[in-house]
Amino acid sequence: MFRGILINKDEAGYQARLQEIDDAVLPAGDVTVRVAWSTLNYKDGLAITGKAPVVRRFPMVPGIDLAGSVTESADPRWQVGDQVLLNGWGVGETHCGGLAEKARLRSEWLLPLPPEFTPRQAMAIGTAGYTAMLCVLALEKHGLQPGDGEILVTGANGGVGSVAIALLAGLGHQVVASTGRLGDADHLRALGATAVIDRAELSAPGKPIGRERWAGVVDTVGSHTLANACATTRYRGAVAACGLAGGMDFPATVAPFILRGVTLYGIDSVMAPLPVRAEAWQRLARDLDPGRLEAMTSEIGLGEAVAVAGDLLAGKVRGRVVVDVNR
Ligand code: NDP
Hints:
alpha/beta; seven-stranded mixed β-sheet; 15 strands; globular
C-alpha cells in the first residue's frame, strides 16, 4: 500500500481523494519510482476536478509530472537509486501518475534528473515550465532574437506564463505580460516583464488584422486572445500557441498569415520526442534563473492537492505549485 490521490468515477459520481492505494492499482511498467515531488498543472486541475475528460481510465492516480528515485528496474538503462524526471506521455491521464508516493512507469518515458536541479526545482518547472521552454525554442528557431521587439506572454500569472516571462526576460527580450490580475503587476515585473497589460484588451472579439506590435507571442489562453495576438503580430513574426485557458476555439481569419506572413506554431509537450525534451531541459538549466523560479513557486502537501486543484482552475493560484508527496 502507498499514499496518493485516487480518482474514481462510479454511481457515486466523480471523486478524487487522498487515500491508501493498493499496489495492484498500478499499471504494468518496467521501472518503479519512489516519488519525491510532484506538481499541479492546469491539466491536473482538470483531472482532479473532472471539469474536462482528461482522465481516460479509472481508478486513476493524477499527476502528469513527477521527480523521484528508481526503486526497481527491469531496464539496464536505469539502476536502483537513479534520480529521474517524467513529464507527460499520458501519465496522470491513461497511466497512473505522480500525485502519490509510488509510480510504475515505462522506462522510455523517463529522463535523468538534470544535475543542475533538485527534484523540487524540477517539479517547480514541471510540464508548465518545460512547455514554456518549448514555446521559446519555437520562437528562437523561427529566428527571433533579443532586440527584435516586444514579446507578448498571455496568461502571465499562470505556470506556463510565469516561466515564459522569466526565460524570455533572462535571454534579453522585452516582455509584455497580459493578465487578468493587474494587482500582481509588480510580481510580473520582478519576474522580468517590462510592461503589464490587462487581458481584457485581448479577450474580446477583435478585427481580422490590427496595428502591428508583437515580434513574437507565447499564448496560453487560446480563443479571441490568440486570434487578437495573431492579428497584431508584426510582419513575419511568430506566435507559439500552447494553451486553452480562455477557450479551445480559434475565432480568427487567415489575414495575419497571408498578409503579414505571420507563423503560428503549435506546441505539444505530452508526446514530444526525447531529444526535444532533452534540449528543453538543457536550456532550462542554462537559462532559467533559480531565484525567479523560486519567486513564482508555492509548496503544498499531498493532502492539499485536491483543494488547490480547484483554486488553480478558478485562476486563484499564482505561478507554479510544487507538491511534497510525502507530507
Ligand atoms: P495556469 O492555471 O497556471 O495558468 C493559466 C492562466 O491563464 C491563469 O493564471 C490566468 O492568468 C489565465 N486565464 C485563466 N482563465 C482565463 C480566461 N478565461 N481568459 C483569459 N485568461 C485566463 O495553467 P498553466 O500555466 O499550467 O497552463 C496554461 C495553459 O497551457 C492551459 O490551457 C494548459 O492546458 C496549457 N498547457 C498546454 C501544454 C501543451 O503541451 N500544449 C502543456 C502545459 C500547459 P492571469 O491571471 O495572469 O490572467
